[in-house]
Amino acid sequence: MGIFPRDNSAAGGKERCVADGSDRAEGGRGDFRDIFELSVGYGLILLAIWTPRPWQSAFSWVALVWVLLATGISFDGWGRMGLHGRGFLRSLWVVGAALLLAAAVAMGGRLHTLHMPQSPALFLRRYWTYAIWALLQEFLMLDFFLLRLLRLMRGKTAAVIATAALFGLAHVPNPVLMPLALVWGSIACLIFLRHRNLYTLGLAHAILGICIAVTVPGPVDHNMRVGLGYLTYRPQQFSGWRHAHHRNQRPQIVSTEAWVMAEAPTRRW
User: Fold this and answer.
1) Which of 30, 102, 198, 246 has its CA 20 to 30 A from that of 36?
2) Could you tell me which residues come within 8 angstroms of residue 237 by beta carbon, excluding any fewer than 6 positions away?
């Protein structure tokens, strides 16, 4: 499946790939390793999404360790993975666009549809872990899946479509997150290929995800759950003077938000 003439050594192919700035690599054993790493990594992610607790937590950690180990062994370089400072200022417009969208969404507050924390301190305490999770999702999508699919597939368009499809499928069966993940996955891949910066995309992802969390009612998107967690979601309402709490359920908590928020309550006005 490789498009470059074969070299006598894998190192020679990798050096040539680095020299011309391409994401393509040698075929043969390199292709097999990429396919193996992708298959095992995505399989472990799906197991974590669709397995009840306590096995869910174990599969989540195994998936993370596998991704980090495979990334270290098949290290693509700081520049190609978007982990350097270059491209940060040129791609900062992505964060600005996300903030503009967030400001537009905030207009929903006039219709009393927002369910925001009551203070900035509560907001930070609730969502700082989600910001880290958003960056981790971008790392998984762009550095783990996209870079390998670029080496395996002919053409960047096919690699972008495949990456976005895998990202969207990971959000099954959530009817809100699935289409949004598919669209954002495509956009993020294209921006990443142009600017090669992971940090601005992670920040934009966090902003957009928080917008969904504070605007979409829990019963609609099941508190941003995916997989088995979406299917087993049951809102638990606790009566109060003017509000109710909706908590993540114990049996399965995998979601864009719940992976890192555990049993944190979400206040609904």
Assistant:
1) 198
2) 244, 245, 246
Q: Which residues on adjacent β-strands are paired with residue 267? A: 245
CA neighbor of 1 nearest in space, from 158, 171, 176, 165: 158
User: What pLDDT sits at residue 229?
Assistant: 92
Would you state the structure tokens that stand for residue 205, as one six-digit string?
């992802």
pTM, two decimals, is 0.77
Residue type, 66: W
What pLDDT, on a 0 to 100 scale, did the predictor assign at position 125? 77
Q: Where are the beta strands (DSSP E) in 110-257?
A: 244-246
List the chain residues with pLDDT less than 70.
Answer: 1-29, 106, 108-119, 123, 236-269
* pLDDT tens per residue across span 110-140: 555 566 666 677 767 778 888 999 999 999 9
pLDDT of res. 126: 76
CA distances from residue 228 to 48, 128, 150 in whole angstroms, order as listed: 9, 25, 31
Other residues' Cβ atoms within 10 Å of the Cβ of residue 167: 24
Q: Which residues contact 224 (CB under 8 A, 6 or more apart)?
A: 174, 177, 209, 212, 213, 216, 255, 256, 257, 258
Using CB atoms within 10 Å of the CB of residue 262, give its burial: 0 to 12 exposed, 13 to 18 middle, 19+ buried. Answer: exposed
Are 235 and 219 in contact by the 8 Å Cβ rule? The answer is: yes
Under DSSP, the state recorded for 51 is S
Phi, psi dihedrals of residue 24, rounded to the nearest 5°: -75, 150
Are 47 and 120 spatial neighbours (Cβ–Cβ below 8 Å)?
Answer: no
Query: Which residues touch 231 (CB under 8 Å, ≥6 apart)?
Result: 173
Q: Up-side HSE of residue 143: CA atoms within 13 Å toward CB?
A: 29
Give the phi and the psi of residue 250 in degrees, each rounded to 5: -65, -45
